């Protein structure tokens, strides 16, 4: 009797710890653009992005040849026409590894300058607000979106990071 109660209490504590560890991951997926292909010509970033949900608080991670390409944020007109003459923001830091915070709920448009946009190096992402129910731990085990939102992206992020690690170091 006493023993079962202790076991049950320990299970609750462990579950709480597990949730505490997982929750900070909830709003923060770091997407490696193009996954293990990175940011390069002749890759369709529209196809790469179309089955993904980008949430406010996520990041994009661009990995590329720093001697050739760059990462420029432009408006929709310049995205369509591959015009890099007046970027809204130059995210290029020089190492060929640029992290862009997606911290506003809106559409973002990125291109590479130096002519590479014309070879397919352009990406449009629509950043959404996090779906509200994910914040309620009491109900969370009943909610399928909770698992999809936290465990799958976490596993995916680790996988893509590992891919990037293997490929680029
Ligand atoms: C990329 O794929 C999208 C659909 O996923 C298609 O509409 C578009 O034409 C493709 N772009 C190129 C340059 O092939
Ligand atoms: C994008 O910027 C260009 C140049 O500043 C401007 O001519 C164009 O109207 C802008 N497009 C949008 C959709 O704001
Ligand atoms: C973007 O910033 C980098 C690093 O500061 C700089 O070398 C590069 O010339 C800039 N590119 C554009 C198009 O402004
Ligand atoms: C989003 O991030 C950029 C770059 O770190 C920062 O300059 C900007 O103030 C942030 N915006 C918001 C709304 O947090
Ligand atoms: C749990 O979710 C149900 C509906 O799915 C709702 O009726 C109930 O109030 C929620 N309980 C808590 C503690 O949020």
TrEMBL record:
Domain of life: Eukaryota
Function statement: May act as a carbohydrate transporter.
Signal peptide: 1-28
Name of the protein this chain belongs to: Phytocyanin domain-containing protein
Keyword Glycoprotein: yes
Cross-referenced InterPro entries: Cupredoxin, Phytocyanin-like, Phytocyanin_dom
GO molecular function term, any single one: electron transfer activity
Domain (Phytocyanin) ranges: 29-129
Keywords: Disulfide bond, Glycoprotein, Signal
Lineage: Eukaryota, Viridiplantae, Streptophyta, Embryophyta, Tracheophyta
Gene Ontology CC terms, in alphabetical order: plasma membrane
Similarity annotation: Belongs to the early nodulin-like (ENODL) family.
């Amino acid at each position: 009797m006493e023993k079962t109660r202790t076991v049950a209490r320990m299970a609750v504590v462990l579950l709480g710890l597990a949730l505490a560890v997982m929750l900070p991951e909830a709003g923060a997926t770091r997407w490696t653009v193009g996954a293990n292909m990175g940011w390069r010509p002749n890759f369709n970033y529209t196809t790469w992005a179309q089955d993904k949900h980008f949430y406010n608080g996520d990041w994009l991670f661009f990995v590329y040849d720093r001697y050739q390409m760059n990462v420029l944020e432009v408006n929709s007109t310049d995205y369509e026409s591959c015009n890099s003459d007046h970027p809204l923001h130059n995210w290029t830091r020089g190492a060929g590894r640029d992290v862009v915070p997606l911290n506003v709920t809106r559409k973002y448009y990125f291109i590479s300058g130096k002519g590479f946009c014309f070879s397919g190096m352009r990406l449009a992402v629509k950043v959404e607000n996090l779906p509200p129910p994910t914040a309620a731990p009491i109900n969370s085990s009943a909610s399928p979106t909770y698992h999809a939102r936290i465990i799958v992206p976490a596993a995916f992020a680790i996988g893509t990071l590992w891919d990037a690690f293997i490929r680029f170091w």
